Amino acid sequence: MPTPKTRVWKLLILCGAIGSLFFFYRATNSLSVQLSPVIKQVSIVSQPSPKAGQMPGQTLEDSRSALATTPGISRIERLQDKIRLTPVPLKQVLVHFDLKGAPPRADFYDAAFPLLRKLGATGVLMEYEDMFPYWGALKALSAKNAYNRSELAHILSVAHKNKLKVVPLVQTFGHLEFALKLHEFIELRELSDSPQALCPSLNSSLGLVKAMLDQVLGLHPETEYVHIGCDEVYSLGRCPRCEERLQLPGTSRDTLFLDHVESVAQHVVRAGVRPIMWDDMLRGMEPDSVRRWNASQLVDLMVWSYTPNISKDLDAKIWDKYSQFGGVWVASAFKGATGAKQLLPDIGYHLKNHHSWLRALEDHRQSWPLRGIALTGWQRYDHFATLCELFPASIPSLAANLVYLQRGRLDTPELHSIKALLGCNRPIPVFGHMDTHFLFCRFPGAKVLTGVQQLTGLLRQKQIMEKNSNYVGWLDSYNIRHLFGSPDHVRDATRNLSELLGTANHLQRFLGDALSEVYDSYTVAELDWASSWSQY
Fold it and tell me: Whole-model pTM?
């Protein structure tokens, strides 16, 4: 019979095992799904897939009548009705790749891009950050695992073959942490103790971003657009140089911002490319300041909001303010907008975001020339943040939202179409949670989704164990530190420990293989964040 001391040590081993497998989750993604014995190990109750489809020969009324009598379906029907509307024609539909975290290997795009095209995407917004192969004086900007020129050329070739436009995104004001953290560029910071934004009052600041743009555009000779960022410049106007400029007549924080962006935009236009910028720094500006801005006809504006009710961020006055721009894009989110450490996307949340956008576009699209939409998928909230939902684990959310944008609904036919495209065993639980409505699919990187679903289930079981009164009362940090506790209560508290340990061991191997199929060794080796796993 195991002693209390042995039981406690097993608990510590469980913590270590789950911590290790969390590292594997944190690091990466994968390519093809192979069902593993680990699937049988996880004690998760999967709710059965409702037989909700309209069968051949049925009328729509027959189908709805059948749905109404099926347990659990009436709620889904109500939710489907709630989001149903007429879709807005969108010329361009871009999918965002946030490569500052968990960048896929170059060969991942061979399978991912054809799927995006089938789902209705027309292009990709590639936020390279330090994954771009900078050279010469900018070589230090590239990460050790950055794509080389050959890999970048391959990615662009695959995009071209699949008729996907590539829009590179180059940060040119805020969120330049990847550059301003380096000794070579530290003097360009707006604040000496923060690498978040560069100082617009230094000529060398403009020199850096122009050089970055020249190299990126040089390797994207066919691009029509380049996104120049310019969001969340929080520290604007706070360095001594900018404060001195602010004493000059007619100078304000707004003009500091607008003058820098105009210089960047003019540089891009001279290269024959149309710049796009984020809108948030303009929202609080006086309408007259924006109207007088010379660059408003040079730049397209990308208006972003990732919430279920975008009208809270964007009122009618803002839309009027933006009416003078030569082109307007909007930006939604299919992942990376509900928490900096989320494991799986909340599909229902993101559907509400897209529903809100479609309603806003219907109301305001006559006010300005609508170019299209970018579905953002943030991988880190900034350069220093931990990873959130991995791209392969978020493909069901991306698929559901892409189809919804085109059809304006996610009824049974749409859900079955997505199920077929992704090769899933059941329709995507767009109104539920993927960790309790288990999906097994065969899209690129699907093994990562399988593993992450199992990981969330395992963490949930761990939390249940930790809330058990026997655990709380007899296995707190004092008991473990001193190996002191009641054998009976420790035994009850750790009753499922062996099963959890077995699951953790299987899952560690499964996720390790899955992640290695999508990511390189640098990403898999991202160990620094594993220590925070218990906060889940």
Answer: 0.85
